[in-house]
Amino acid sequence: MYINKTKTCRKITAxxxxxxxxxxxxxxxxxxxxxxxxxxxKENHKYHKSNYYYFKILSTQPDDISALYGxxxxxxxxxxxxxxxxxVEKLLQIDANHEHGLLLRSxxxxxxxxxxxxxVDAQRVTQINPLNAQAYMYMDTAYSALGNKxxxxxxxxxxxxxxxxxx
Length: 167
Prior knowledge:
Layout: H1 2-24, H2 29-43, H3 47-60, H4 65-77, H5 81-94, H6 99-111, H7 115-128, H8 133-146, H9 149-166
Helix pairs in contact: 1-2, 2-3, 2-4, 3-4, 4-5, 4-6, 5-6, 6-7, 6-8, 7-8, 8-9
C-alpha cells in the first residue's frame, strides 16, 4: 500500500513539475524537452540520468527553479543529502517561499536532527499553504523530538484532519 502511494506521489510530483514548467512560459523549446526527459527519467527511477538533464538545463539557465528542485529531490532520493541541501539552498536563494523547496529542506533537517530548522521551514510552509499536511507532520516530528508534547499534539491533530479531508 505504501509503495503504491509513493509511486502515485512521484507521478503527481512529475505532473505538477511539468505543469509548472509549461506555465512559466520562460523556457526555451530545447530546455522544455530536457525538462520532459528529466521528469521521464525520474519517473523511471533513473535518477542519475534525470540529473544529467537537470545539469544540462542549469548549465545554460542556472536560476531555473524547476531544475534546481528536481536535482535537489533526486539527490535526496539517492541519499546524497549534502548535495540535495546545496541545490535546495540555491533554489531558496532565488525563491525564498518555494513551498516544495522549504519542505525538502525541512526533511533534510529531520535527517540531520536540526529540529529548530525543521520548525522554521515547516512553519513557513504552513504560512504559504495552510493545507499542506506534510508540513504539520514535520512539525509534529520536530516538536516531539524537542519534547514539546503540546505543540506536537496540535501539529499531529492538524495533520490528521488534513489527511482525513483528502480521503
